[in-house]
Amino acid sequence: ASKYRPFAPVGLKDRTWPDTVLGKPPIWCSVDLRDGNQALIEPMDIARKLRMFEALVDIGFKEIEVGFPSASQVEWDFVRKLIEEDRIPQDVTIQVLTQAREELIRRTFESLRGARRAIVHLYNATAPVMRRVVLGLDEDGIVQLASGQARLFKELAAQQPGTEWVFQYSPEMFSGTELPFAKRVVDAVTEVWQPTPQRKCIINLPSTVEHSTPNIFADMIEWMHRNLARRDSIVLSVHPHNDRGTGTAAGEFAVMAGADRLEGCLFGNGERTGNLDLVNVALNLYSQGVDPGLDFSDIDEIRRTVEHCNQIPVHPRHPYVGDLVYTSFSGSHQDAIKKAFAARKEGELWDMPYLPLDPKDLGRSYEAVIRVNSQSGKGGISYLLESEYGLELPRRLQIEFSQVVQGVMDASGKELTAPDLWELFEREYGLA
Ligand code: KIV
Ligand code: ZN
């Protein structure tokens, strides 16, 4: 049983809970090795790609977009390495991306020769600005392009019957596309693929650029969910970006609106402001009592791997993982946390002020929770002396010593660690 309780606000009578919270995890798909990688100043080499792939497998991802094999030699070589060296676990499916161009599609299928199972991901842009300015095609032209390349997918898959093929289609810039037209293109593709409830295809709806508040994106997903042909034969996937800083919310709302699957990157890497942050969504679920099916029990190790592979640091205030997110600077926060830890009984539901989840669950420790700087009060000082040195100060001494500490910090402007406090205490009270 989870130690976290599903969130249900008291007082909102016109809503049915928990229907409007996420009650189960989506199907997860990591695109770290593709969307994440294409957004790096220096894209990953094969060694870094492999390290990221293995970390994603260890976390528990079952669908991993590993690259764009027709785009570069490294991408091609990496896909070949995974297949030829038998590095893909039985329960993991690799996914590769291709643009809707015949020579690229042929090369993509070639790169997957010998794979046990693979998701082949076809995309073309559908938004008016891309039709007009980039592709020079009208609506009929886009429908023909997508359905023609979908047909080629079927032909090439039939030529490699040893692989179990899953087809995926993305109307790129879905978030800027007229809904009836997006439906028309997607329906044309599924008309070609003829998926069944037993053999589904994936339709992936990206907010290639995030244009709206997340509820609007979710409304668009709900419209597609209700109106697409062959809905029971489709895994409805979404691929939010984060241009307005609301990628996480967009993904969560989209799942509540009918999506089955989420694509994103660890810690929100990806083009521009990044993709949906998979860690955020997974741990948001976790902290509300829903097992995300992904293992972040050693989140610092995952962070080190991701920082090494991406060569991008994770922000100290990044939800769940940043250096500072289990640190409380204010005296009133420290005091409340100290009291809640003292009152907490084994096996109780988590109900801690200022700590949305137990840092221990992610391999982080309580030691980092309370630090002492010029913003903090006596609670934090006595907590550190007691937890680190077993020194229980009487209340009068707590007040007296906190004034000494305050004087030192006011003069230096620096934070004091537990050993600093111990040394000061020894000096002040002549124990040294
Ligand atoms: O953001 C996007 O539209 C993409 C597509 C290729 C799916 O990454
Ligand atoms: Zn993307």
UniProtKB/TrEMBL annotation:
Where does this protein act, in terms of pathway? Amino-acid biosynthesis; L-leucine biosynthesis; L-leucine from 3-methyl-2-oxobutanoate: step 1/4
Which coarse location class describes where this protein primarily resides? cytoplasm
GO CC, sorted alphabetically, is: cytoplasm
Its needed co-factors are:
Mg(2+)
Q: Name one GO biological process term.
A: L-leucine biosynthetic process
A Gene Ontology molecular function term for this protein is: acetyl-CoA C-acetyltransferase activity
> According to the UniProt record, what class of enzyme is this?
transferase
What the protein does comes down to: Catalyzes the condensation of the acetyl group of acetyl-CoA with 3-methyl-2-oxobutanoate (2-ketoisovalerate) to form 3-carboxy-3-hydroxy-4-methylpentanoate (2-isopropylmalate).
Q: Spell out the family assignment given in the record's similarity comment.
A: Belongs to the alpha-IPM synthase/homocitrate synthase family. LeuA type 2 subfamily.
- Name of the protein this chain belongs to: 2-isopropylmalate synthase
Which organism does this sequence originate in?
Answer: Ramlibacter tataouinensis
- Record lineage: Bacteria, Pseudomonadati, Pseudomonadota, Betaproteobacteria, Burkholderiales
Which section of the whole protein is represented?
6 to 437 of 563
